[in-house]
Amino acid sequence: MLEASPSEPAAQATIVADARPARGRASAASVSASRWLPAVAVSMAYPFALHGCVAAVHAAQASAGGVRALWSLSVLVMVALTLAPAALSLRALYAIRFDTGASAVAVRRLMHLGVAVPPFYLLCIRVADLGALVGGTASGLIAWWGVWAVLGVLVWNTGRAAAPTAAEAADERAGRLLSTPAGRSRRIHRIAVVAVLATFLVAHLANHLFALWSIPAQQTAMLALRAWYRAIWIEPVILALFVIAALAGLTRLGRLTRSQGDGFRVLQTASGCYLVFFLMSHVWATLGARYQGIDTNWAFASGGEAGLLASDVLAGVLLYYVGSLLAVTVHAGLGLRMVLLSRRVRSAAASRSARLVFASGTALSVLIVAALLGVRLGG
Questions:
Q1: Across residues 348-358, what is the average pLDDT?
Q2: How far apart are CA 205 and CA 363, in angstroms?
Q3: Residues sharing a CB contact under 8 Å with residue 177, sequence separation 6 or more, in sequence order
Q4: 110-132: average pLDDT
Q5: What is the mean pLDDT of the segment spanning 334-338?
Q6: 135 — alpha (psi -120 to 50), left (phi > 0) or beta?
Q7: Burial 95-112 (b: 16+ CB within 10 A, else e)
């Protein structure tokens, strides 16, 4: 899900308009831990923020008067804590956007995981439950903390274990190895994404809007659309397109995290990383449920026909969905901007087109989230 420079390196000066060459040189010094350790800390605490948010919502619903107001304030605090990993990770990514040293590359990649914490956490829980070494929530928490601890140590040691010149030489060699496949993957990724949008995603998101009117209306639209995208000769193609788009996007990410970029690049790669983990987690959950004979209908997606407000999984699933909707909007808008720039469209016009996608995508996201929360205009 990654789109980058319209033609590399020809359009680099256009895309990275605010890049400063002096800051873009590879730095021998390690990136300060204060840039990224806070994001790692709040990412490790993310499960507690989720559970705290659910508990606070239930307590607020069961209370009245001043006590309810206090619990409602606690809900806002917990929501802020669940958003903290993405906010601090984006802050770190923006701060080091011009640094191409080995330490900055490692930090940049770790911070992309920080942005993708909601789907990354659910995926980690599902993998841990598959192993069931400890059982229940404990296995997921141990796996989650273990992943972040190991990655944190690796990033901390990057640039310290070897002489700066050796590290920079290795980074340059790896960049050359990635350049050819990454360059080819751009077109593959773009074609796969457009195909996914045309064959599945647009219709799938539009189907969610019917739930804003009523559940029966959504059910009718869903069954009609399933005749298309669950057809025995169509569904494997759609799944293959998802895999191709994700693999090509990750290849692009490996290349782009080695180079400097502007704020648009930060948002583009971060939203793409979020979508890759969301797809892995969401497809795993959906296919797993279908294998068990569970109908993956609106009740499955929203925690029940009453919506997420009445569900025990409110905090985790709502943030997971909202993040995916915003990531699709941001990534599609910035992808369109890159395509327009590659066609020699003026930067101002390309940016306006991206903002139009942002605005329409945000409006669509608000309507879908309202439906997920149980709003029904048709009664």
A1: 92
A2: 12
A3: none
A4: 85
A5: 91
A6: left
A7: bbbbbbbbbbbbbbbbbb
Q: Which of 321, 319, 332 is nearest to 298 (CA)?
A: 321
What is the 3 state secondary structure string of the chain? CCCCCCCCCCCHHHHCCCCCHHHHCCCCCCCCHHHHHHHHHHHHCHHHHHHHHHHHHHHHHCCCHHHHHHHHHHHHHHHHHHHHHHHHHHHHHHHCCCCCCHHHHHHHHHHHHHHCHHHHHHHHHHHHHHHCCCCHHHHHHHHHHHHHHHHHHHHHHCCCCCCHHHHHHHHHHHHHHHHHHHHHHHHHHHHHHHHHHHHHHHHHHHHHHHCCCCHHHHHHHHHHHHHHHCCCCCHHHHHHHHHHHHHHHHHHHHHHCCCCCCHHHHHHHHHHHHHHHHHHHHHHHHHHHHHCCCCCCHHHHHCCCCCHHHCCCHHHHHHHHHHHHHHHHHHHHHHHHHHHHHCCCCHHHHHHHHHHHHHHHHHHHHHHHHHHCCCCCCC
Shortest CA distance to 225 belongs to which of 241, 197, 243, 206? 206
Q: How many CA atoms lie within 13 A of 31 on its CB side?
A: 30
What are the tens digits of pLDDT across the range 52-91? Answer: 888 888 888 788 888 888 988 988 898 899 999 999 999 9
Location of structure tokens 């693999």: 247
Cβ-proximal residues to 370 (8 Å cutoff; 6+ apart), any chain: 212
According to the model, what pLDDT value does residue 97 have?
92
Average pLDDT over residues 172-197: 70
- Asked whether residue 5 carries a pLDDT value surpassing 50, the answer given is no
Q: Kindly give, in sequence order, each residue whose CB lies less than 8 Å from that of residue 206, ignoring residues fewer than 6 positions away.
A: 221
